[in-house]
Amino acid sequence: MASAAEYFSDHYQSARARFLEAARAEGAEIKSWPHPLTDAEGRPLVVDVALLGPADAQQALLAISGTHGAEGFCGSGAQVGWLESGLWREAPAQVRQVFVHGINPHGFANLSRVTQENVDLNRNFIDFSQGVPRNEGYDELASALAPSLWDEETRKTTAHEILAYGAEHGTMAMQAAVAGGQYHHPDGLFFGGEGPSWSHRTLVDILQSCLGRVRALAIIDYHTGLGPYGYGERICTHHGSKAGARRASDWYGGDVTVPSLGTSSSPELHGLLIEGIEAALPETEATMIALEYGTQPLPEVLEALRADNWLLHHGDPASEQGRAIKAEMRRCFYGDADDWKDMIWERAVDTQRLALAGLTEG
Ligand SMILES: [Zn+2]
């Protein structure tokens, strides 16, 4: 292995094949959840799960890739590397290891951050029976964030409107308005949905069927697109007062940030995976982080998302403009460069080792 870059794939289908090959070679048990749709070439979209270690384990490590579709290249590379390199064997014998590959395979294959329902999966885990929260900041910016035209003039005027909101309310308030999650604009950005999405229901099924007996669970959910280039921020999305945040801080030597305490590059969000995991596994002590790697500057990432949203609702992915928008999505969510991949890999290994140590020594 010359470089960790070799663990990373360029397409969903090759990432999937690589993951399955590595899992089989290491003797993992594999379970698969086929998606109802196919990719643009008619090939299957599948959530694959590789399981290693004792089935009756009380302690488990769960690593998830592709929550945000196109961000899956990163987490897939970390999962493939962990298996292929044999580092997974470092885990204490009593620990179960569960790798969920491409939990949002439709977004992964289509270079999109959302699911086929235009849902941001990491805003979809609210309890819909309790009603949905209102994001008034988003309401104010909705037409600027997701215009029905995408020409130079519209891009410029709407970007100006968003910047003006930030100048008036502050950068973090703007981030919360834009990205905090919203439940009233189904064609908009960061839409949390009107009910559990397919990927949501699939994750709950995976948790209950593969991890129902586990008492202590370490979760690492791989993300990209926020923060400094190649740096992996360990974002603890348990609320500040909860025991989970304290455990995460202990395990990772204080090297975690907490949005509810204002120490993260992320604002506080609604409907996160952790909420769904805690609801699905009420008897389990979960300690979760999102490992968030930076790619490009935030304004470029937001511009890519706005363009992709326009493409989904108004454009033609096969057109020249459509292909350019998808190329920009790839650039903004997959730092397709060897130095970036090396940084991803080193931080991933360090983080998974600390998670295993925290699980078994804590
Ligand atoms: Zn993400």
Question: How does this model look, in words?
Answer:
It is a single chain. With 362 residues, this protein is of the alpha/beta class. It folds into two domains: 4-63 and 72-124 and 197-295 and 334-361, Aminopeptidase (3-Layer(aba) Sandwich); 136-179 and 301-327, no CATH class. The chain is built from twelve helices and seven strands. The protein has helices spanning 12-25, 72-84, 105-109, 136-145, 152-169, 171-179, 198-210, 243-251, 273-280, 298-314, 320-333, 338-361; strands spanning 29-38, 44-52, 59-64, 95-101, 216-229, 232-235, 285-294. Strand 3 (59-64), helix 2 (72-84) and strand 4 form a beta-alpha-beta unit. Helix 7 (198-210) crosses helix 9 (273-280). The site of zinc ion has 4 residues, from strand 5.
Structure characteristics:
362 residues, 7 strands, globular, 12 helices, binds zinc ion, Aminopeptidase, 43% helix
Count of strand segments: 7
Strand order of the largest sheet: 1-2-4-3-5-7-6
Low-confidence stretches: none
The CATH homologous superfamily of the largest domain is termed Zn peptidases
Q: Structural class of the secondary structure composition? A: alpha/beta
Question: Tell me, what is the CATH class of the largest domain?
Answer: Alpha Beta
